[in-house]
Amino acid sequence: MHSLQFTAESSSNGMHERDFTVGGIPGVLWSPVSSAADRAPLILMAHGGGNHKKHPAMSGRAQRLVTGCGFHVAVIDAPGHGDRPRTAHDEAEIAELFRARAAGEPEGPIVVRYNDHLAELAVPEYQATLDALQKLPEIGTDGLVGFWGINMGTAIGVPFVATEPRITAAVFGQHWPDVLAEKAKQITIPIEFDMQWDDEHISREEGLALFDAFASKEKSLHVNSGKHKELPRFEVDSAVRFFARHLGGAVTATA
């Protein structure tokens, strides 16, 4: 079992930021500055394709959860992303994606295939990261844990949550159902699901099919007009309230 090693730390804007590695996998843990050692729920997040653990989307969501709810938030770099080197397989898949995009061909089949490959690698990494983080006294083995991942984060998150009983609630969205629907059928925890009605890559039927596959008794579908990259910022507010409701946080005005 890999142990967690902190490699750097800083504080700003009400958040205590600690870089770490678990078995060589780089990650970041954000906690409230005023109570970094206090017990609180943990939200694991997964970033989107082509991004990294400290992408503004990740740090922005963490800011809401940390300063608004008092939660701890952690993200690791996906394989071939951020501070992790690309393999020859990564380079080939990315080149094929750019080729299809330039030719006006559907990107979905390539993204689904590549994300499925990344998920096979990332799921055990997230399990090891959760194991290590729960050894921290401010998180603990009996603390509540949520998961938040959109796009590629959903490709990683659905198989992770399907096999991880420690997750209490999850936010997913914006992905094809192809390889995820069967895994979604294994998920029964509360979920919130985002999709764009005018997504140029993922059809309405595909988005609805993935949402419908979840076996959760409580699941909310959030549909907004707009294209793939136009998910409204207010959906972050909704996700924060969702996690506060299920993990016991009280959302403050800063959230």
Automatic annotation (TrEMBL):
InterPro entries assigned to the protein according to its UniProt record, in alphabetical order: AB_hydrolase_fold
Protein name in the entry: Alpha/beta hydrolase
Origin: domain of life: Bacteria
Source organism (scientific name): Streptomyces cellulosae
Record keywords, A-Z: Hydrolase
GO molecular function: hydrolase activity
